[in-house]
Model the fold of this input.
Amino acid sequence: MNNLKVIYEDNHIIVVEKPVNIPSQGDKTGDIDMLSIIKQYLKEKYNKPGNVYLGLVHRLDRPVGGVMVFAKTSKSATRLSNQVREKDFEKTYLAVVNGKMEKSEDTLEDYLLKNEKNNMSKVVKEGTKNSKLAILDYEVLKYDPEIDLSVLKINLHTGRHHQIRVQLSSRNHSIYGDQKYGGRGHGKQIALWAYELKLNHPISNEQMTFKSIPEKIGSWKILEDIQNI
Done:
């Protein structure tokens, strides 16, 4: 797979930019997925016969692009998965959302309930059976009054199903192009991107930061004059 964009690679991990509309791992559609693409890349690059080990540590929703890390050994996979569980794994997203935010920065806390049948989540009252606490904070990088859209930088504190999409849409700030949760820009690509990943290297324990910025075209043209990303 020649068009795989590798951001960083060593003997233990590989960090790549996931293109939009490619699943993180195989699903019922049978479409090509990131695990298969990277395994093929490693097989060809290192001329490896047989099956190549690659550990999936975290996922991105299929329509969302951006930075992802995969483990090249089972030891690395276990250690990175522990970091995810212990919240030592920091994920920052960029999103283009409807309207002007009430505050330039804020923390959002909600209880979310996932509906398995339609694969959607919704905000529910605290104490609702099977609901999970979802927390994120955001900072507004830009508001464009002409098109009434804002660019947010979002830090996830919990990793709930469709969390960013649900928490923002419940406040009438749906993500542009989000058909599932009522976003403007019908038929457009969802403007949500995994922009930055901070983790401790599973072997050396060195803190590492990886970034990926979407191409400034289409819905992302709005990023053009933002300096601080």
Observations:
- The two ends are 29 Å apart (CA to CA).
